[in-house]
TrEMBL record, chains A, B:
<dbReference type="GO" id="GO:0046872">
    <property type="term" value="F:metal ion binding"/>
</dbReference>
<keyword id="KW-0472">Membrane</keyword>
<feature type="domain" description="AstE/AspA barrel-sandwich hybrid">
    <location>
        <begin position="212"/>
        <end position="293"/>
    </location>
</feature>
<keyword id="KW-0378">Hydrolase</keyword>
<dbReference type="GO" id="GO:0004046">
    <property type="term" value="F:aminoacylase activity"/>
</dbReference>
<dbReference type="InterPro" id="IPR007036">
    <property type="entry name" value="Aste_AspA_hybrid_dom"/>
</dbReference>
<keyword id="KW-0479">Metal-binding</keyword>
<feature type="active site" description="Proton donor/acceptor">
    <location>
        <position position="171"/>
    </location>
</feature>
<feature type="binding site">
    <location>
        <position position="27"/>
    </location>
    <ligand>
        <name>Zn(2+)</name>
    </ligand>
</feature>
<keyword id="KW-0862">Zinc</keyword>
<dbReference type="Pfam" id="PF24827">
    <property type="entry name" value="AstE_AspA_cat"/>
</dbReference>
<comment type="similarity">
    <text>Belongs to the AspA/AstE family. Aspartoacylase subfamily.</text>
</comment>
<keyword id="KW-1003">Cell membrane</keyword>
<dbReference type="InterPro" id="IPR050178">
    <property type="entry name" value="AspA/AstE_fam"/>
</dbReference>
<dbReference type="Pfam" id="PF04952">
    <property type="entry name" value="AstE_AspA_hybrid"/>
</dbReference>
<feature type="binding site">
    <location>
        <position position="24"/>
    </location>
    <ligand>
        <name>Zn(2+)</name>
    </ligand>
</feature>
<dbReference type="GO" id="GO:0016324">
    <property type="term" value="C:apical plasma membrane"/>
</dbReference>
Length: 302, 302
């Protein structure tokens, strides 16, 4: 018989926070949040040092995801330590600059918390993404934001999720790329304020209670059906699945509707949770949606 | 005293119809509708000759609005008759090719009806746009589609409008550029089928009753508030205006919310109808929304 074990985790102070927007130049909530902070020269939020960064200014200027290669895929040790020549893509050069500014990755000088602000065309609400379910800081922040959200917006149709995937920290949608929507920007602004508030409370020794957190762990990506020869897509997300991110997808549920009108169903045997449904930027990556398993993590208090 | 005068308009047969998609390469409903027709080699729809065209294949391949210049702004007599050199932007060369294929503009060989399929990120539903309120064919088609829509989708939240502006014929939204949504694609497919159905009935001599049609006539464009020096935008569409295309905007109604949280109100004295609210591609054109006057046109029967 398993017995419940209480784990005590010692976490260091979060003294250096980086706030990044425009990692993808056409995801405008982060772009305008960061631009506004830079304009008002906000460098300190009640004793936390916050470094505000426009990650990919060249892509922001062109209002494109990236100019030569996806910046968000450049933060590997190989790319960060590779040689730079005249022909090196701009984003690789920029990733090395950012690594110097915010890292170096894995060093003791690195930022304690990097909050990277993204938008998605998927109906994902506010979604925090972490590397693992042992990322206690992110789990605590998530719980804090969730509690605040429940208190303040009981009637709101806006919801939050916590997702484990190797990449990105905060996604918010639905918002078309290249567009800024006030409500989405306000929600992101509030989320960032609450995150910084949590960091302040945490640093000042405020105890946070432990408890259950539902997390989603990425299982796999699903591509669009494609034409064998041209590789062009031959179907769109089915209307019954569109916008239903984080709603359980069961075997035989509709997934795609082909351009000739046929319905294609989910052939998996395990019910899973879809997310990033119909994200614009993932057409080129061969991802129509991703699937996750949900489970509960019992997070200890501090 | 004005007396009601019945006008009889003689309209020639609509024997040559062109169906264009991908005029903007990232507006995917038209792209996939056209691609599917080309794949199935649909060239004749019950005795109407329909020329199906992918307007800007290079922009479609890159999933961008355009590669060098906006194709939709190239169809002026000056551009269409200008010289072509090695340095001429691709879209200008392509506009001349299209003019040869579908026109020449103003000539007796020109298509009788060019249906150009577009998407918008604005919540405009299905919107037919015509050059003037004397465009009887478009007004008839609009009435026909509207009647069909009322019969078939009484519960649908989808709605239609008829807009007079110098440009484009069919817009449908909201849909993020670079994304295809099944429901939007299906609505466009149905709209196109009904338009062709109307053409068939019209050509075979079916009489259509006259009556009142509400049309919107463009009055002016409104730009975002901008930073005097950088020209960057300093506000987004106000949450109370976002998605309320074709809902009356009255003096003192909120229009923008600045990034620092201030509300900016409509300072005009005439209530007007907003449309193209927060259209992605119009940020670069300096258009946050357009304003129209609504009025009724009494369309005669044939």
């Amino acid at each position: 018989l398993a017995s419940k074990v209480s784990i005590s985790v010692v976490l260091p102070t979060v003294s250096r926070v980086a706030l990044c927007g425009g990692t993808h130049g056409n995801e405008l909530s982060g772009v305008y949040l960061v631009r506004e902070r830079l304009k008002r020269k906000v460098e300190e939020e009640e004793h936390i040092s916050v470094v505000t960064v426009m990650s990919n200014p060249r892509a922001v200027q062109q209002c494109r995801r990236y100019t030569e290669t996806d910046l968000n895929r450049c933060f590997t040790h190989a790319t960060l330590s590779g040689p730079v020549t005249d022909k090196t893509p701009y984003e690789i050069v920029r990733s090395q600059e950012l690594n110097t500014l915010l890292g170096p990755k894995g060093s003791p000088e690195a930022m304690d918390l990097v909050c990277d602000l993204h938008n998605t065309t998927a109906n994902m609400g506010l979604c925090l993404i972490a590397y693992s379910d042992c990322d206690w800081i992110s789990l605590h922040i998530y719980r804090y934001l969730q509690a605040r959200e429940n208190n303040h917006h009981r009637d709101s149709s806006f919801w939050m999720h916590f997702l484990i995937r190797v990449e990105l920290p905060i996604e918010i949608g639905p918002q078309a790329h290249g567009v800024v929507r006030s409500n989405i920007l306000s929600t992101m602004q509030e989320g960032v304020q609450q995150m910084l508030e949590w960091v302040r409370l945490f640093n000042s020794g405020t105890p946070f209670e432990g408890g259950k957190v539902d997390v989603y762990t990425m299982v796999k990506n699903v591509d669009y059906p494609r034409d064998f020869e041209t590789r062009g897509i031959t179907a769109a997300i089915h209307p019954q699945l569109q916008d239903r991110d984080f709603c359980l997808l069961r075997p035989n549920d509709p997934v795609f509707q082909t351009f000739s009108g046929e319905t294609l169903k989910y052939t998996g045997t395990e019910p899973l949770y879809p997310f990033f449904i119909n994200e614009c930027a993932y057409y080129e990556k061969g991802i129509a949606l991703s699937l996750a398993r949900q489970r509960s993590v019992f997070k200890s208090g501090d």
